[in-house]
Description:
heterodimer, A: 8 helices, 10 strands, B: five-stranded antiparallel beta sheet, five-stranded mixed beta sheet, 24 strands
Amino acid sequence: MTRKHTCAPxxxxxxxxxxxxxxxxxxxxxxAQKSGPTxxxxxxxxxxxxxxFVEWPAKAASVGEFFSICVLGDNSFASTxxxxxxxxxxxxxxxxxKHVAKPQDSVGCRILFISSSQQTRLKEIxxxxxNASVLTVSDMPxxxxxxxxxxxxxxxNKVRFEVNLTSAERSGxxxxxxxxxxxxxxxxxxxxxx
Amino acid sequence: MFWVRDSSIAKRLTRMNILVSGAGLFLCxxxxxxxxxxxxxxxxxxxxxIQAQIAGSDSVSALLxxxxxxxxxxxxxxxxxxxxxSAGIYTPESRPFAMYRRDGAGQSLSLPPIPPGQIEAxxxxxxxxxxxxxxxxxxxxxxxxxxxxxxxxxxxxxKRYAGIAAIVLLASMIAAxxxxxxxxxAVAQPIVHLAELAGIVSRDKDYSVRAxxxxxxxxxxxxxxxxxxxxxxxxEREGALQEVHRDLEQRVEAxxxxxxxxxxxxxxxxxxxxxxxxxxxxxxxxxxxxxxxxLNAIVGFSDLLAEGGPGELNPKQKRxxxxxxEGSAHLLQLINDILDLSKIEAGQLELHCEYFHVKESxxxxxxxxxxxxxxxxxxxxxxxxIDRPAYADRVRFKQILYNLLSNAxxxxxxxxxxxxxxxxxxDFVCISVIDTGIGIRAEDQAVVFxxxxxxxxxxxxxQEGTGLGLAITKRLVEQQGGTISLASEPGNGSRFTFxxxxxxxxxxxxxxxxTLSATIPQRVAAGEGSSRPLVLIVDxxxxxxxxxxxxxxxxxxxxxxxxxxEAVEKAEQLRPDAITLDVFLAGGNGFETLAVLRQxxxxxxxxxxxxxxxxxxxxxxxxxxxxxxxxxIRKALLLETIRKHVPSQLDDDxxxxxxxxxxxxxxxxxDILRSAGYETQSVQSGKRALEVLSSKLVSAVLLDLLMxxxxxxxxxxxxxxDAALKELPIFVMTGKSLTPEESDLLARDTQAxxxxxxSWQQQLVAEVExxxxxxxxxxxxxxx
Lengths: 194, 784
């Protein structure tokens, strides 16, 4: 929000600054994806879009006045996400990015992005979240197999995703068929690690 | 308009049905098809829009998660709709995202722009329907979907509709035709029936036919009833007409029969009349013969007795003979008159009309009447102011004039005066006989022209006559186209005037008046028994003519002419034995006359002696004159000169054959001819005559026509068929009334015809003399 305030003196200057910043940040990807957005930007947009195709149980949906996307672990992704969803809202609820340190803090979050850095402690994290109506998304390998709900996969330079529908249903979430249509892989029964 | 041409009402009705129903159906079909097209288009747009909407919303996730394959899959579902040609999904930046083509080719399509403010737009373009629709997801534009559909379904549908419409039209027309024929039977049939009937009626005139009324009281029914009624009236009238016609025919037949009867009756009567007429004319013919024959004997012999031929009579005998003469003359006149009148009444009077000059005929009549007039010392004058010839029968004209003159003499007292006036009156010649006689009372004037009426109460007994003269005169005048009238006052004489049609022949003989008076008495004188040669004296001066005539009259008969033209005419007519010709003539030069005479056939050898004051002997002789004498001449020289050229005596070497069945007539004729110096031989039948002719040479034949056995006509036929006797002169003498055929025959085959109803004796001698003289001349000419 502060950044937003700093931009206040001139919209043009702010946009320009943002563009320059974006280019600087996205520089390593520029060559890979040609003139397209960065992987993180795409993932941020996907995270935002997931909110549109998932239904949360009424109890969970009514909590709080924001639609919060929480990021566990890597901070750098959070900032990109923040930029993507700035000013956006879903179902009349303003979107918010929260950085959480531990899974317990994710209470009230609709979507929890688990950074790859948390790979080792994934089992505890998922256990902590058990039964909480939170859509778990990560780009770590084997995420859906280990009980995560949506896992980003890069396939031929394109960001795709896999879905573990059983995990989602266990948490009381309903994933739209539209979403499942564009998913590259939808798992019906969990191959629980435990 | 095709349906006006065809006269059949049934066909017209049918066509009208088809046209009306066809037009209605066609309009309906057209409207329905148009409505269907519009609503079908709307439905198409709607459907395509829905499909675009579905495709769009199905492609939302694909767009959001940048998964073109998913969008492609979505679009592939459009295969189910065969009408969709192509479709495409576009990103919000209008970049093609996913494409679909029915035929497989993957070419990208350019996206038509959507008007601002609208979410969807459509176009019909190039036989396609295009729909473009924005994809909105949670109020945010997610992209654009574009679908293009062909219109095959619509055209199929249209074709189907058109086919159905055509079938419906066809079916309905057939239905209309069927219904129309039923309808036609109801409406047109009575009219057609009526038309056929009218045709039959006008063609066959059959008014008994009737049209069948339909009985439903509509207009055709009324028409049929009216037609029937009309036919009924016509039939009625026709019947009445035919009745009248029949009646008329019957009447015509009856009348025709009556007429036929009447005709038959008329024919019968006509036959009877004809028979009566035939009988009457036969009676007339025989009567004229039978009556005249004895009368001729009486007249002839009493004449001879009176002239003292057989011996001088004592005065008493002479007186008796004169009584016989007078009585028989009167009887002859009476018989002639009665026969004339009968002929006129029987319509058998034959007129031989010709052009002649009154002044030429007048002297003959005068010479006959003058002795009668002189006996009562009555002066006869005449004044002729006339330049046109009359067209009439010359003989009858003389008879008319003679009758009027003798009538005038009869009623004019001693020392009276009779004058003849002759003048032109328009197209008529008008002749009046005026006397100073006793006159006729007005009440008697009307009856003088009636038969057997004589005005009585004359003051002396000089009246005599048959009472037929004026009646005959009137009829003769009228038969010739003239009129006769009478103007008279008792005591102041009478004026009888008659007219005859005038001819147009110009008067060629202006100075004939003078010569006629001299010529005719000369001809009469010639009948006195002389057989002397005839000399024609041509001179324009009367004293000169008379001087010459006095020199010559002792030895020659004389004829005179006062002009060249008259000279030629007379010469041709009279065939004189010699001609004396003056060079100075009133009408022209004598030399010219001489030249004409020399060129005239039959006159070439007639000697012409020029007697003139001028001495042109050489010229005259060169022109053919026999001699040339210069005045004044002496009698002796003239006689000597003429004697040189003309023998004054006849050589009577041949006899004249007399043929008559009546011995008294034969004796009379023989006596007359002998006294004129001719030899005669008499026979009493035609057969005998032919025998004589075949054995003996005769100079002429005097023939009676009515004879028992061979009659005169047969004799003539035999004579004319005989080559040796062809030229033999035949004189016919008869009391018979001649038919035109007989007259023609006699005119052709005989030289003279003497009728026993007048003064035939003188005529006989004259004719015999003429014919024999000319024969002699011709013979001598043939010998020389």
